[in-house]
Amino acid sequence: MSNNKNQPKEKSGGRIRIIGGKWRSRKISFREAPGLRPTGDRIRETLFNWLGINIDGAHCLDLYAGTGILGLEALSRGASTCTALENNPTVIKQLHVNRDQLEADLSIITADSIKFLQHKNSGRVFDIVFVDPPFSKTLHTESCGLLESNGWLAPDALIYCELPAKGNLFATPPSWRIEKDKIASGVRYMLYSRIESGA
C-alpha cells in the first residue's frame, strides 16, 4: 500500500434516496463493491410508474439486491414483502442496517442467486421480480430461465430486467411478453409479463 498522502482516497460508498411512498425522501447508505450500481432516480421512477397498482400487496424478489433500493422502494410503495438475495458480506451487512433503520419487511438471504434459483420452489411464489445483476456478468438469461422453470413466479408475475444499453439482448422464456422497454443513462430497462397458457 502506498503511503503517498496525495493519493486519492478509496471511495467507501454513498447514499441514495427512496423517491416514493411512506419512506419518500429517506436516504439509505451503501458500500461500494464490484459490480454494485444503484438504479438511479429517473429509472426507478419510470419503473414504479410501470408497475402502478400492481405493487400493492405484492410479494417481491430482488435477485441481485446490492444496495437494496429496488426492494425498499417497492416496500415503501405498498408491497407486502420483499426477499433480497445477495452474496457480498460487506453489502449484506449494510442491507441489514438499512432494513433495521426503516423497520422494513425485507427478508435478506445470503446466497448466490443462480444456485438459489436452481432449487425447485416449494414455497411462496413471487408477484414481482427484479433482475439487475452486475453488468460485468451475463446472468440475465440463466436467471430468467430458472425463475420460470423452477416455479418461482406467480401466474401473473411481472419481471423487471436491467442491462447495459449497448449489451446484447438476452433470451427470455417463451411464456414471457415484453411490456415496456426504455433506454436512459446508458441503461436498458424492461418489464416483462407472463402469458397464460393458450393466450
Automatic annotation (TrEMBL):
Q: Name one GO molecular function term.
A: 16S rRNA (guanine(966)-N(2))-methyltransferase activity
Uppermost EC category: transferase
Source superkingdom: Bacteria
* Cell division recorded as keyword: no
Alphabetized, the UniProt keywords read: Methyltransferase, rRNA processing, S-adenosyl-L-methionine, Transferase
Q: Which E.C. number(s) belong to this protein?
A: 2.1.1.171
Keyword Transferase assigned to the entry: answer is yes
Check the record and name the Gene3D superfamilies matching this protein: Vaccinia Virus protein VP39 (3.40.50.150)
Q: Which reaction does it catalyse?
A: guanosine(966) in 16S rRNA + S-adenosyl-L-methionine = N(2)-methylguanosine(966) in 16S rRNA + S-adenosyl-L-homocysteine + H(+)
The entry sums up its family as follows: Belongs to the methyltransferase superfamily. RsmD family.
**NCBIfam families per UniProt:** 16S rRNA (guanine(966)-N(2))-methyltransferase RsmD
The UniProt function text for this chain reads:
Specifically methylates the guanine in position 966 of 16S rRNA in the assembled 30S particle.
Q: What is this protein called?
A: Ribosomal RNA small subunit methyltransferase D
What is the species listed in this Swiss-Prot or TrEMBL entry?
SAR92 clade bacterium
